[in-house]
Design the sequence.
């Protein structure tokens, strides 16, 4: 299967959210979200070392858009349907199109944490992967030291498959174990 030939939407909605691919021009809104989330993301995300400029955020959005079109990586921005505010950055990553299997990742804009937006977005992306991409497996991986992140797949009913010991280094350099959750179809 050639993923370039797959036709699927670059935008869809859940009950409270609009989930869409990044577009050229999204740099300013993405930058504001990153600045709000930077401190909370520092322990987990390698990109959270320093605050980006608006231009650097735009430089991220344009290749993200191109990668989406080329089916190399499916980044999604998650907005509140009611206000259009960007609240979550997520995506369907590490695609193995021949299986097909995918991994969902996410981070939340700090003022919107704890309201279920990440859980709703991850549920929407899981269903999108199943229905639009033909997924046979969806994974969510999270550091064992980040329970806020790994509780999301548990809420969604993904199966805990195990912990990969000393799997990754956190941005500060310490080794982390990685919890793996999956749903198969």
Sequence:
């Amino acid at each position: 299967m050639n993923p370039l030939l797959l036709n699927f939407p670059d935008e869809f909605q859940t009950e409270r959210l609009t989930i869409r691919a990044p577009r050229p021009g999204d740099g300013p809104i993405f930058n504001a979200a990153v600045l709000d989330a930077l401190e909370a993301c520092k322990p987990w995300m390698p990109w959270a070392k320093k605050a980006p400029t608006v231009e650097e955020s735009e430089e991220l959005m344009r290749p993200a858009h191109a990668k989406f079109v080329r089916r190399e990586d499916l980044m999604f921005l998650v907005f509140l349907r009611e206000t259009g505010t960007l609240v979550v950055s997520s995506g369907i990553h590490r695609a193995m199109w021949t299986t097909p299997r995918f991994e969902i990742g996410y981070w939340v804009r700090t003022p919107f944490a704890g309201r279920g937006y990440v859980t709703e977005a991850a549920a929407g992306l899981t269903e999108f992967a199943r229905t639009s991409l033909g997924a046979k497996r969806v994974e969510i991986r999270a550091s064992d030291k980040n329970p806020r992140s790994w509780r999301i797949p548990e809420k969604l009913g993904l199966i805990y498959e195990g912990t990969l010991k000393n799997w990754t280094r956190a941005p500060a350099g310490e080794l982390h174990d990685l919890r793996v959750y999956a749903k198969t179809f």
Observations:
- The radius of gyration is 16 Å.
- The chain is about 30% helix and 35% strand.
- The mean pLDDT is 97.
